[in-house]
């Protein structure tokens, strides 16, 4: 298709926290059979109606230089005669946001084609107004997120319907051509993943009600799916604030939906919390009569508080639901074993991944919704194993390449261009491409990203000093993350960064070979070997057979950490006998500060599996994640110290977070990087490794986990892999069913029957 639409906006220009309504009518002839393809984009978000019916919302968050648009077939929404397209567009407009999300110029773009011929397009003929339904003098939810909302239901005037007077509206003004040279939006990209799905959930319980000089009666009926009865609220006494706190039982992501009758209006405020530390975010000024309420912005919580005020007559609540939204995975793995805690951990890991899978893979659905590289890479491993999907990871890796910095580094977060420079995240992005290739076998995708990977590698090369090591890590603007802990010395030549650089070189050598770049492959291997030699020469402590955290100038740091040495094993630099000594003496022996973050635990577990310590790995998962379960976790926390007081969970005021007593930084209780048990537990318990499925290789190990029975089913593009076994009197028996087309890599004494179908 050829874009003929223009980017348009209100003639008064863009403003911070701005809501605009756009309208355009057109005629459909009688008995006309045609395809009506509508394409739409906006900066920052849109909601689309056709003839008063909701069609969709979007677009996928993106960098302004690579702007996404959505497509809808709207024939089913149209009628004979006059039809109307109505769109509310929200523009964030605030520059002060920590992760640089929602940036760029304001704009709206739409084009409608009938059987591939232009019917209408956004231009100066469209009508626009500042939406009267939203109060915009609101404060921020946090510096990581958007603004709170005030919705004035009294201002609903049927503007999205066909029959409506636009007398007070004005003509839109043109901003730019749709794309290309001279446009504010150089590239338009059609949505690369399926549309998000929506579904409804109800609360599990009413945690409490409070009269507060009024009354809140029959709140428990809000749990009734059929809505056969109603709750009532009396907030007629001056200053009365009756309220109820609803518990959904676990994290929900989307938007609450409320239907209520307020005979003479009133005020409703909604507070949200992943824990019971609730924050008021949405305020609704109710109109007299029926009110159908839903916030514009996406929310995430476990607990929802409804507080009513200033209602002269009793309010009747007909419905309180939560409209969930998320990525439409088509398949999902199943797993069972006779260890209830492992089953629970597996389930929570899968659910945490679901709650962070949207238009991109998010680190957390409430605080910032950002595309952090390491969260996406870990979630990728989960998704390959758990859902068999590749489209979402592919999009996320592409978005990383699209915002690559001019000097070659990849920003640590996205999907919009930003200043976050984390040298280890640059490595994890390349390793994420390698994981994608191993799982999918899509060497053409590797070829597409090869120039970007080489630019990252060239950037790494420029960071080395005459020792051959990554150096000057303490420079302004650089953050050597490694793990969220202060127990790592990160000065100058940081060992972990050079280790990851080595692993990148080895991975790129393998990919170059598959691309037929044999000379480059050999050169990358030689470069990797030289870097390994430099790491061992300068950063190895031979007297204790461990790697130091760093070297500052010419002085080797005396500080040791588990993270540095686990990475040395994981990246293939530490030999097996050295690794076993380190694990037994320093890790199990407790000689170094423990790993307390959920992120780095996936590297710990992978190393233990690599060394044949599956039973130990299971113990760690049951101990670390199991302790979260014992403290009430229903999704995984961003950070957690299992040695903390049993009465604590992550909180600004309770600890279990690096931002302890740091007000203004929201704590995440649904964090993607903690979901690794979803792919690790099948490896530990069932001996199943799907990481090289794209190469047609399926790795099966002897199940060494000592439980009595286990089973699982895991989707792949060739069909599902099914494993079940039982252990009786020390002997294991069972079956592994595998779709034809896989090469099975397994030991000669693999005890389960292998059946191809």
TrEMBL record:
Pfam families per UniProt: Bac_rhamnosid6H, Bac_rhamnosid_N
Bacterial alpha-L-rhamnosidase N-terminal domain mapped to chain residues: 35-179
Residue intervals of the Alpha-L-rhamnosidase six-hairpin glycosidase domain: 331-684
Superkingdom per UniProt: Bacteria
SUPFAM superfamilies listed in its UniProt record: Galactose-binding domain-like (SSF49785), Six-hairpin glycosidases (SSF48208)
PANTHER family, alphabetized: ALPHA-L-RHAMNOSIDASE C-TERMINAL DOMAIN-CONTAINING PROTEIN (PTHR34987:SF4), C, PUTATIVE (AFU_ORTHOLOGUE AFUA_3G02880)-RELATED (PTHR34987)
The name this protein goes by in its record: Bacterial alpha-L-rhamnosidase
Source organism of this protein record: Paenibacillus plantarum
């Amino acid at each position: 298709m050829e874009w003929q639409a223009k980017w348009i906006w209100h003639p008064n220009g863009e403003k911070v926290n701005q809501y605009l309504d756009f309208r355009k009518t057109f005629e459909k002839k009688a008995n006309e059979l045609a395809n009506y393809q509508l394409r739409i984009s906006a900066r920052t978000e849109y909601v689309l109606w056709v003839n008063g019916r909701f069609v969709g919302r979007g677009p996928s968050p993106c960098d302004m230089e690579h702007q996404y648009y959505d497509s809808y077939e709207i024939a089913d929404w149209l009628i004979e005669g006059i039809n109307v397209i109505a769109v509310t567009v929200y523009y964030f407009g605030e520059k002060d946001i920590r992760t640089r999300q929602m940036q760029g110029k304001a704009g709206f773009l739409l084009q409608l084609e009938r059987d591939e011929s232009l019917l209408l397009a956004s231009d100066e003929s469209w009508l626009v107004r500042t939406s009267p339904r939203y109060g915009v003098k609101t404060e921020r939810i946090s510096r990581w997120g958007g603004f709170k909302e005030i919705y004035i239901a009294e201002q609903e005037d049927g503007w999205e319907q066909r029959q409506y007077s636009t007398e007070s509206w004005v003509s839109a003004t043109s901003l730019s051509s749709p794309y290309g040279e001279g446009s504010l939006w150089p590239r338009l990209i059609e949505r690369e993943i399926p549309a998000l799905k929506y579904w409804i959930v109800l609360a599990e319980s009413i945690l409490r009600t409070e009269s507060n000089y009024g009354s809140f009666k029959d709140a428990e009926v809000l749990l009734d799916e059929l809505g056969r009865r109603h709750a009532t609220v009396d907030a007629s006494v001056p200053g009365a604030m009756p309220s109820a706190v609803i518990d959904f039982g676990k994290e929900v992501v989307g938007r609450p939906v409320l239907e209520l009758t307020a005979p003479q209006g009133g005020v409703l405020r909604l507070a949200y919390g992943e824990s019971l530390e609730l924050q008021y975010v949405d305020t609704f000024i109710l109109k007299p009569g029926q009110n159908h309420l839903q916030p514009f912005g996406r929310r995430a919580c476990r607990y929802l508080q409804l507080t009513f005020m200033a209602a002269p007559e009793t309010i009747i609540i007909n419905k309180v639901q939560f409209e969930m939204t998320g990525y439409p995975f088509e398949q999902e793995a199943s797993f069972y074993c006779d260890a209830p805690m492992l089953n629970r951990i597996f389930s929570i890991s899968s659910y945490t991944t679901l709650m962070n899978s949207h238009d991109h893979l998010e680190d957390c659905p409430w605080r910032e919704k950002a595309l952090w590289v390491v969260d996406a890479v870990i979630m990728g491993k989960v998704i390959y194993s758990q859902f068999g999907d590749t489209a979402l990871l592919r999009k996320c890796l592409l978005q990383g390449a699209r915002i690559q910095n001019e000097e070659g580094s990849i920003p640590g977060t996205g999907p919009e261009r930003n200043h976050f420079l984390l040298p280890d995240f640059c490595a994890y992005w390349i390793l994420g491409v390698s994981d994608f290739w191993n799982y999918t076998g899509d060497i053409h995708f590797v070829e597409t990203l090869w120039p970007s990977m080489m630019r990252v590698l060239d950037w790494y090369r420029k960071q080395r000093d005459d020792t051959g090591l990554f150096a000057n890590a303490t420079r302004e603007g650089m953050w050597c993350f490694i793990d969220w802990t202060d127990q790592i010395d990160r000065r100058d030549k940081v060992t972990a960064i050079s280790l990851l650089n080595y692993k990148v070189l080895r991975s790129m050598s393998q990919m170059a070979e598959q691309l037929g770049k044999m000379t480059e492959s050999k050169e990358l291997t030689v470069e990797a070997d030289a870097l390994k030699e430099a790491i061992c020469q300068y950063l190895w402590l031979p007297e204790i057979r461990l790697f130091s955290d760093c070297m500052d100038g010419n002085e080797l740091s005396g500080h040791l950490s588990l993270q540095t040495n686990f990475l040395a094993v994981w990246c293939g630099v530490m030999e097996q006998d050295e690794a076993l000594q380190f694990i037994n003496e320093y890790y199990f022996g407790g000689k170094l500060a423990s790993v307390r973050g959920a992120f780095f635990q996936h590297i710990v577990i992978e190393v233990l599996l690599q060394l044949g310590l599956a039973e130990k790995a299971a113990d760690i998962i049951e101990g670390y994640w199991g302790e979260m379960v014992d403290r009430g976790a229903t999704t995984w926390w961003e950070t957690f110290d299992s040695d903390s007081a049993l009465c604590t969970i992550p909180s600004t005021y309770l600890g279990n977070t690096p931002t302890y007593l740091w007000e203004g930084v929201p704590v995440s209780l649904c964090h993607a990087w903690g979901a690794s048990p979803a792919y690790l537990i099948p490896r530990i318990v069932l001996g199943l490794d799907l990481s090289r499925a794209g190469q047609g290789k399926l790795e099966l190990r002897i199940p060494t986990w000592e439980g009595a029975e286990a089973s699982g089913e895991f989707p792949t593009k060739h069909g599902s892999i099914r494993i079940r076994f039982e252990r009786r009197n020390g002997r294991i028996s069972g079956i592994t069913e595998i779709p034809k087309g896989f090469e099975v890599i397994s030991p000669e004494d693999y005890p389960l029957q292998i059946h191809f179908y």
